[in-house]
Amino acid sequence: MSKRRTCGDGRDGDRKMTDGNTDAVTATNNNNNERKVIVKEFFHQSPISSSGKLHSSSYQHESQSSTSLKKAYGVCVEVFKSLFLPSGYPHSVSDDYISYQVWDTLQAFSSSIMGTLATHAVLKGTGVGDATASVTAATLTHLLRNFTGMVGGIWFAWFSGSSMDGKAKQWRLVADVLNDLAMLVELISPLFPSVFFITVCFASLFRTIVGVAGGATRATLVRHQAKMNNMADVSAKDNSQETLVNLVALFVSASITPYAAQSLMLTWTLFLILMGSHLCCNYKAVRSLIMATFNSYRLQEAVKRTLSVSSPSLSVPSCLQLKKVNTSEPLFPAKQSPVLIGPRLRPCDETIVLENMEGKCVVVVVDRTRRQARVYLTAKALSAYDVLLGAIVAHISLLDEPFLKQNKGCVAATTSHWEKARTLINKFEEQGWDVNQHQLFNEGYSLMISE
């Protein structure tokens, strides 16, 4: 009896459609045993991406006896993914995406209900429901609240805007703490009518700072999560997730607000429980982030851990994994880094810089008295790689105790420091660090030799 050859393996086969949008091939051998073949997809909309590459977001072929309920469930899952997850998930986002989003969703739910309780208190304080209240006074209070918030937002952006890239985790946590503080002040405001105006103005100031810090750090986190130049998609789906959470919280708030309005004890009990949940979820969310770019702390910690291993080849130990360095990063204010990048030229460094500047784009000067290093950038230092390499040289020189004890005063980093830094930056890249961009604070000055 002749056999029909398919799939190039000498066995019968047929192709069927699964419950999603992925093709699956079911091949049957002579013993009628089924072998399931998984065909992988990239985007949810098509089995294969435009580049022709296959990725692992797949579904197994269901047998002919699959029920319609399972198929409906599969369709619902696909619809949910297409609405709330970036296209190509999980390969189009960072590994920590789902853990961060879960905690972020939980904190958003708590924050939304807290906001409803705080809004109820503010409306009560402005005279809503009080026949003797003045509409003009309520309007002026609202306008002055907005004025305070706008001025405070401009000041805060000037004061801390340049540090938010390198301290995205810390400022994200600070923003959520201030958000809770703002709602706490709003909840207290009706209890002190004589200072109601002052309290709501402070709350407005805190909320504006939350908006500036939250928006700026969110941009940094989206850039970290988007692995396939899909920042717009990741940001849009994050907004969709937040909208869904706020919608659910809206129904919950509508259910509990009538009861909370009649009991001050119930209001405060709910608020304190939700505030604790909000802060806990925010801490978990920020701590779950595993960022592959260097900021001041992560770079200093990575260099220190590597140099602590006595190996001439600078073999990177297992403790230098991204997760190890990220989990050791403090989420609260820490001491300032001893390395200054792009500072204004100091008179004591001018001679050293002129002697070492020719043909170089970065000059590292080590102050052995103050245990400080200054990374001077020339107009040629246009790439993040060059700046990062100079910062690594600075950290290596500050950890070189024999070098620091030789003499006091300022001196340029040695050739051995530069060679060790080039070896080290290659090792970092092998470990998964992104050495082509960084989040190091740059004071913004560059040097140029005038003829």
What does this structure look like?
There is one protein chain. By secondary structure, the chain is an alpha+beta fold. It has 13 helices and seven strands. The longest helix is centred in the middle third of the chain and has 32 residues, at 231-262. 31% of the residues are buried. The model is unreliable at 1-33 and 39-62 (pLDDT under 50).
List the helices and strands and how they pair.
Layout lengths: L11 E6 L5 E6 L5 E4 L30 H17 L12 H29 L9 H26 L7 H21 L7 H30 L5 H32 L1 H24 L8 H12 L14 H6 L11 E3 L8 H7 L5 E6 L4 E6 L6 H15 L2 H6 L3 E3 L2 H17 L20
Helix pairs in contact: 2-4, 2-6, 2-7, 3-5, 4-5, 4-7, 6-7, 8-11, 11-13
Please name the defining characteristics of this protein.
451 residues, alpha+beta, 4-stranded mixed sheet, 3-stranded antiparallel sheet, 8% strand, disordered N terminus
Number of strands: 7
- The DSSP helix count reads 13
Element-by-element helix/strand order: EEEHHHHHHHHHEHEEHHEH
> What gap, in angstroms, lies between the N and C termini?
92 Å
> Main beta sheet: strand number and arrangement?
4 strands, mixed
Strand residue percentage:
5-15%
What topology, given as strand order, has the largest sheet?
A: 4-6-5-7
The parts where pLDDT drops under 50 for at least 5 residues are: 1-33, 39-62
Global outline: globular
Task: Please give the radius of gyration in angstroms.
Answer: 29 Å
Helix content: 40-55%
Q: Which structural class do you get from the secondary structure elements?
A: alpha+beta
